[in-house]
Design brief:
Diaminopimelate Epimerase, Chain A, domain 1, 301 residues, binds manganese (II) ion
């Protein structure tokens, strides 16, 4: 049985919980767009977590908005979908109902709480400037931190989180290496972010297409730099410069943005939550789409 998820803390925590309760022999990390575009071959014994619905899957857990870009699940499917801070929370609740007070699950209560906080961006300035424990670990497996591919890393973390306390996980050499790099490159990252960003009314726009290699740094720093804005639009190249990726997120400190980002992104074939989402734009449509997105973000306030 395969577990198919995305490579972030929410996917990781979902994987820790699901591998406790299901006979998973392989973990596959994908981009959610691979389901939307049907490029990933889903099998009947797959469990999907933290990615969109696919009718071929045996089981599905997700907390993203159901948008026009993706197929709708029938009323009865195995698993759980709902509004929750993280997919891991839905997985946790599902198995806690199935196995009440199960000590194997209960010992991950704190991991699930912290996953909720990071995935829903319920963070303090301290979590952004000086992150610790699970939040810090979360930045090391966020592709948006710029630390590169990590299928092996992800699978090792699933095992370590089951075997040792978080302090010890953070002491593992390959985890330390990522944490050290994140700390070392954050200043340069912040500098580049400042240089390539500008404010348009309530929106901070960051265009990273001129940057060859972005240093590592976490995606929330932008909201510390532009406290007057309530939403960010980040534009960067897709793989091999064959597409343009637009990522939109509500400010995590100035929570007044009225746009439902997931719905806006779905107009361009992407998706997400009310507060954050992405879309992958073909080269010939990117400029117009970005203008339209910017217009809507400003018009909504
Ligand atoms: Mn999630």
């Amino acid at each position: 049985m395969r577990l198919v998820t995305r490579g972030d803390l929410d996917g990781l925590t979902s994987a820790v919980l699901i591998t406790l309760k299901e006979p998973i022999d392989e973990i596959v990390l994908i981009h959610p767009q691979d389901i939307t575009d049907k490029v990933f071959q889903v099998r009947p014994d797959d469990i999907l977590a933290n990615v969109p619905y696919d009718p071929r899957a045996g089981m599905w857990f997700d907390h993203h908005l159901l948008t026009e870009s993706n197929q709708k699940p029938p009323a009865t499917f195995k698993g759980r979908h709902g509004l929750a801070p993280s997919a891991a929370r839905l997985v946790y609740d599902y198995y806690m109902e199935k196995y009440p007070n199960d000590p194997d699950l209960l010992r991950f209560a704190k991991l699930v709480d912290e996953t909720d906080r990071l995935d829903a961006a319920q963070l303090t300035p301290e979590d952004v400037e000086n992150p610790r424990d699970y939040i810090l670990l979360g930045y090391t497996i966020d592709s948006r931190s710029g630390l590169g591919g990590f299928e092996d890393y992800f699978v090792k973390l699933v095992d370590w989180l089951k075997q040792m306390p978080i302090e010890e996980v953070l002491q593992q050499p390959i985890v330390r290496e990522r944490v050290d790099r994140l700390k070392a490159e954050t200043n340069e990252f912040t500098h580049l972010l400042k240089r390539n960003s500008f404010q348009l009314h309530n929106v901070v726009v960051t265009d990273l297409r001129e940057i060859e290699r972005l240093p590592a740094g976490n995606r929330f720093i932008i909201y510390n730099l532009f406290p007057e804005t309530n939403v960010s639009l980040r534009v960067h190249w897709g793989p091999s410069h064959n597409s343009v990726i637009a990522a939109v997120g509500h400010s995590i400190f100035n929570r007044t943005c009225k746009t439902s980002v997931g719905d806006l992104m779905s107009k361009y074939g992407g998706g997400g939550h009310r507060g954050a989402g992405t879309c992958v734009l073909p080269l010939d449509k990117a400029a117009d789409a970005i203008d339209e997105i910017l217009f809507e973000l400003q018009a909504n306030g």
